[in-house]
Request: fold
Amino acid sequence: MKKIAAFFTALGLFIIIIAIFHFSLTGNLKTNNKDFGTWVSPYKDLSYNAISQNMHKDTMLVFGSSEFRHGIKTKYHPKSVFENQNVSLMLIGGPYNQCLNHAITLGAVENKIQKKKVVLLVSPSWFYKSGVTPDRYSLRFSESNYMALMENKKIPKSIKRYVAARSEKLLSTNDSMQQRVKRDDRIFVYGQGNAVDNLIYSARKAYVTDKDYITVNGILKTSKIRKLSEYHDRITNPEAIGWSGLSSEAIDSARRRSHNEFFMSDKVWNGKLKSKYPISKDIHIKETYKTSPEYGDLECFLKICKAENIKPMLVVLPQNGYWFDYTGISAAKREYFASRIKKIGKEYNAEVSDFTKYDYTPYFVRDAVHPWGRGWVKIDEKIYEFYNQI
Reply:
């Protein structure tokens, strides 16, 4: 009897501890802290609840990819430049994020967007012939955002059908997720879901939501982002941003750290690319930017903007022209890409800022594709101008 009593006592204590742990990490994800928006984290990006609960009346979404991780500790990154300005950004993106992932997130949270503007930092490297690959798409796929998109009755069925077809195909390397997405699509896209599908969907959604709360709250506890009692704009430096001065500082800093013919960071050149140099001649010679499913995914993103009356700005990111000339992607190929993005942008009334004009500007990118300080300052300035447009 004593052993049985001890067992149930231990079991009861275990359940209580688990319950305390569970409820301490679930609940509201709202931080009331604008720093949350410039927090670069895949846990934030993959959570519909984290993004939607931290959008305010002046929040503008800025979608991108791996560039957000470059220069994050410098004064030139948007996290630093806008920290003490009356600018509220929600940065979404990391390595392997591309247009379709961003279209899903945009469609999921569009009803939370009060400032009807979004920015998409467009990477030329997304538009290779294959487009986004299944393994990369799966890595950045958010089930909670997908569910929210499919439940959003304001998103046209034609867009949902496109997203469904692409996602079912691109999740080929993740069979379990692919099957869940097919079930979602039966319910919300094709109208073929049955009672069992609906029951399983409800249970799965509860699980995914719970997982969102536990994961993000757990990560927040180890971050420097504090939850505040109320939201307020933090303006400790109301002066105009000195773009010219920032740019000069960035150039001087980069010049001291670059001593190679490609104007790259010595750290990157010596650590990664120098050893690849002998075998990189014309390695991309067959890439043309002329054919890629990524163009369709970009149009999907812009169709959501058009349907929901959101003004988009496409920032076409620069590449290191010296390096890409060497690897086989000539200036003519890059010019074709930029002109095609401009054409698509015009069709959907998007503002397009073409930064490929800086492909040969020294110290603009720190490696082959990622902005250096000088590049970030120019991108920040364009974002700032767009944010404040009336």
Notes: The chain is about 50% helix and 5% strand. The chain has one domain: 2-387. Residues 10-26 have pLDDT under 50 and may be disordered.
